[in-house]
Write a structure and sequence with these properties.
By secondary structure, the chain is an alpha+beta fold. It has seven helices and seven strands; from the N terminus they run ααββββαααβααββ. A three-stranded antiparallel β-sheet has the order 5-7-6. Strands 1-2 form a two-stranded antiparallel sheet. The chain has a two-stranded antiparallel ribbon with strand order 3-4. Strand 1 and strand 2 form a beta hairpin. Helix 5 packs across helix 7. It starts with a helix and ends in a 6-residue tail after the last strand. 11% of the residues are buried. The mean pLDDT is 87.
Length: 189
């Protein structure tokens, strides 16, 4: 019903003013809604060909977030119209996240990323799959140097974050190995 109520559902305190949480959250929501994701890849058999896909998250949106002005009449309902491609991807491969887990993990972007990744990834696994430390670093560790020290620091941060994730997602089955993380088929959260 309101931005403040949505923030409360996420466990965020809604405060106004220039440095408050509402303007920052609103700005991040608008950036997310306006995001376009571009993916590109090459296939080993076709080294001369490039493949890619652009994904627009929303085709249009209408947001009525003006906390400083009290409305004299009921405000129109805020709405976001997802792009057809993004909507189809969500329906084809949904990632069921528990907002209670999001509230607990909200202080750690890495833990949130690993939580979303793990619940999606293990939901369709048919057999145990190892994800190497290098693959994890390429996916989640852009801020860590590709040096021995950077890799050690990244691994320590992932282990800490995975501990937090397992604390809220007890059905997650994984094993930490020397070469990476072994994911086992698990129920989505």
């Amino acid at each position: 019903a309101s931005l403040s109520r949505f923030m409360a559902e996420l466990g965020l305190q809604a405060t106004g003013g220039h440095w408050g949480t509402i303007p920052r959250f609103r700005d991040q929501m608008q950036r997310l809604i306006g995001a376009a994701i571009s993916m590109r890849w090459e296939q080993e058999t076709c080294s001369q060909q490039a493949f890619g896909e652009n994904l627009l998250l929303a085709d249009r949106y209408q947001l009525w977030w003006t906390p400083q002005i009290l409305p004299t009449a009921p405000s129109p309902v805020s709405s976001i119209t997802l792009s057809e491609n993004f909507f189809e991807q969500l329906v084809a491969a949904p990632v069921p996240l528990d907002l209670r887990a999001v509230r607990v993990l909200k202080q750690s972007p890495l833990a949130l990323d690993l939580y979303a990744w793990a619940t999606r990834r293990v939901s369709y696994l048919e057999r145990p799959t190892q994800v190497s430390w290098d693959a994890l670093r390429r996916s989640f560790g852009a801020g860590y140097a590709d040096t021995p020290q950077g890799r050690v620091k990244f691994r320590a941060k992932v282990l800490d974050a995975l501990g937090r994730v397992c604390g809220v997602y007890s059905a997650l089955r994984l094993e930490i190995e020397e070469g990476g993380v072994l994911l086992l088929p698990s129920a989505p959260h």
